[in-house]
Specification:
Blueprint lengths: L2 E5 L2 E4 L4 E8 L7 E7 L6 E7 L5 E3 L7 E6 L4 E6 L8 E8 L13 E2 L3 E6 L1
Parallel strand pairs: 2-11
Antiparallel strand pairs: 1-3, 3-8, 4-5, 4-9, 5-6, 7-8, 9-10, 9-11
């Protein structure tokens, strides 16, 4: 059974940092696309960052470039999202997702598995 379990969300003041983790089980944590997506109330789902666990290629949404860093630890089967210089507009539910073909997929609708989400709230 494939499982993705996020952790690390919370409340922080603007300018602060958080690190999200996504523990993956049930499939080999390589040669897949792993992504972080977020959704705020009343808004659509937004791609935050994606990494191909085989090549290390990364993608970042324009709104987070230079502030967020996606990374992986193959030994721990864990995906991370380091979030620095947080802004109130970063407040959202953050989801970890996996796309197992590893074909460099950025469309969240193409992702196969999703975690339950972790809430991030940034106050002014």
């Amino acid at each position: 059974e494939v499982r993705l379990v996020e952790s690390g969300g919370g409340s922080v003041q603007a300018g602060g940092s958080l690190r999200l983790s996504c523990l993956v089980s049930g499939f080999t944590f390589r040669d897949s696309d792993m992504g972080w997506f977020r959704q705020a109330p009343g808004k659509g789902r937004e791609g935050v960052a994606v990494i191909n666990t085989g090549t290390g290629t990364t993608y970042y949404g324009d709104s987070v470039k230079g502030r967020f860093t996606i990374s992986q630890d193959n030994a721990k089967n864990t995906l991370y999202l380091q979030m620095d210089s947080l802004k109130p507009e970063d407040s959202a539910m953050y989801y970890c997702a996996a796309e197992l073909s590893g074909g460099w997929v950025l469309d969240p609708d193409e992702y196969d598995y999703w975690g339950q989400g972790t809430q991030v709230t940034v106050s002014p």
